[in-house]
């Protein structure tokens, strides 16, 4: 290999590293900015917006957690998201398995129709959804969030599980059937132990989407004392201004579960993405 070729490759590699580094900085800086702001008094935020806090205001976290009731909203969000995510993973896995392995008629058409619902803007379904939830007397309740959240999360979850189950060798299920296993027994003993990558992928997508959901929560809970975390943060804003220190502390409290959850399942994440994309 010539010296010019080696030099060109090194320049290309250096350029790629610079691009990646710039992307990392662009991604991390907003989080760092929020963390620094959460440690400042609101008055200091206006006079020292870009630099380190002169005096660490740990009281912002107490004010956010206790006085602004973020702790209560945190519990509500955790309850709603946990149940919604469990239902999404349960029904998504069963539906994906059925469409991929049980020779359901028009399975690909069904899958396409499910995915087509994700192309619709959320605003187009808000009014009929609100009317339906009102008639069921579920507006302002946790069930009024859990049911729509489950429905919104199912299409993409079914699609990921469908691709994952399609990628599994047929010999595994055929051997189980030969040994006398029913479909549900084969699913429980053979498929479930292999599902962790797909489950982790769907769980990450679902958790991130539901944990920060605001549009439907702000409508469904507008006449109720029940609040989720994103909706509860609005309480920091008033007609006279925004309490930036405690508000940023509340945002940090929202970010912590996302980071912890991702770190817990990230080792399965790439496996799930590639496993769900092997076959369509």
From TrEMBL:
<dbReference type="Pfam" id="PF00528">
    <property type="entry name" value="BPD_transp_1"/>
</dbReference>
<feature type="transmembrane region" description="Helical">
    <location>
        <begin position="111"/>
        <end position="133"/>
    </location>
</feature>
<dbReference type="GO" id="GO:0005886">
    <property type="term" value="C:plasma membrane"/>
</dbReference>
<feature type="domain" description="ABC transmembrane type-1">
    <location>
        <begin position="74"/>
        <end position="265"/>
    </location>
</feature>
<feature type="transmembrane region" description="Helical">
    <location>
        <begin position="18"/>
        <end position="39"/>
    </location>
</feature>
<dbReference type="GO" id="GO:0055085">
    <property type="term" value="P:transmembrane transport"/>
</dbReference>
<keyword id="KW-1133">Transmembrane helix</keyword>
<protein>
    <submittedName>
        <fullName>Carbohydrate ABC transporter permease</fullName>
    </submittedName>
</protein>
<comment type="similarity">
    <text>Belongs to the binding-protein-dependent transport system permease family.</text>
</comment>
<keyword id="KW-0813">Transport</keyword>
<feature type="transmembrane region" description="Helical">
    <location>
        <begin position="78"/>
        <end position="99"/>
    </location>
</feature>
<dbReference type="InterPro" id="IPR000515">
    <property type="entry name" value="MetI-like"/>
</dbReference>
<keyword id="KW-0812">Transmembrane</keyword>
<dbReference type="InterPro" id="IPR035906">
    <property type="entry name" value="MetI-like_sf"/>
</dbReference>
<keyword id="KW-0472">Membrane</keyword>
<keyword id="KW-1003">Cell membrane</keyword>
<feature type="transmembrane region" description="Helical">
    <location>
        <begin position="186"/>
        <end position="211"/>
    </location>
</feature>
<feature type="transmembrane region" description="Helical">
    <location>
        <begin position="145"/>
        <end position="165"/>
    </location>
</feature>
<feature type="transmembrane region" description="Helical">
    <location>
        <begin position="244"/>
        <end position="265"/>
    </location>
</feature>
């Amino acid at each position: 290999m010539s010296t010019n070729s080696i030099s060109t490759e090194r320049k290309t590699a250096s350029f790629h590293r610079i691009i990646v580094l710039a992307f990392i900085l662009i991604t991390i800086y907003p989080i760092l900015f929020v963390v620094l702001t959460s440690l400042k008094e609101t008055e200091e935020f206006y006079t020292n917006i870009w630099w380190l806090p002169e005096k660490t205001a740990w009281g912002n976290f107490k004010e956010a957690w206790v006085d602004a009731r973020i702790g209560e909203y945190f519990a509500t969000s955790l309850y709603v998201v946990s149940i919604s995510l469990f239902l999404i993973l349960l029904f998504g896995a069963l539906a994906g398995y059925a469409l991929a392995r049980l020779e359901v008629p028009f399975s690909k058409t069904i899958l396409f129709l499910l995915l087509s619902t994700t192309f619709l803007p959320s605003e187009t379904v808000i009014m009929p959804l609100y009317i339906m939830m009102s008639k069921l007397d579920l507006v302002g309740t946790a069930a009024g969030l859990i049911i729509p959240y489950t429905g919104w999360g199912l299409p993409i979850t079914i699609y990921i599980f469908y691709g994952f189950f399609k990628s599994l060798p047929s010999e595994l299920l055929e051997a189980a059937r030969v040994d006398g296993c029913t479909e549900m027994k084969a699913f429980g003993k053979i498929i479930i132990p292999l599902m962790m990558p797909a489950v982790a992928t769907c769980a990450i997508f679902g958790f991130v989407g539901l944990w920060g959901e605001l549009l439907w929560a702000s409508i469904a809970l507008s006449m109720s004392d029940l609040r989720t975390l994103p909706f509860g943060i609005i309480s920091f804003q008033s007609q006279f201004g925004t309490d930036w220190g405690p508000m940023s502390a509340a945002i940090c409290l929202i970010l912590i579960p996302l980071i912890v959850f991702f770190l817990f399942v990230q080792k399965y994440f790439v496996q799930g993405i590639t496993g769900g994309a092997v076959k369509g």
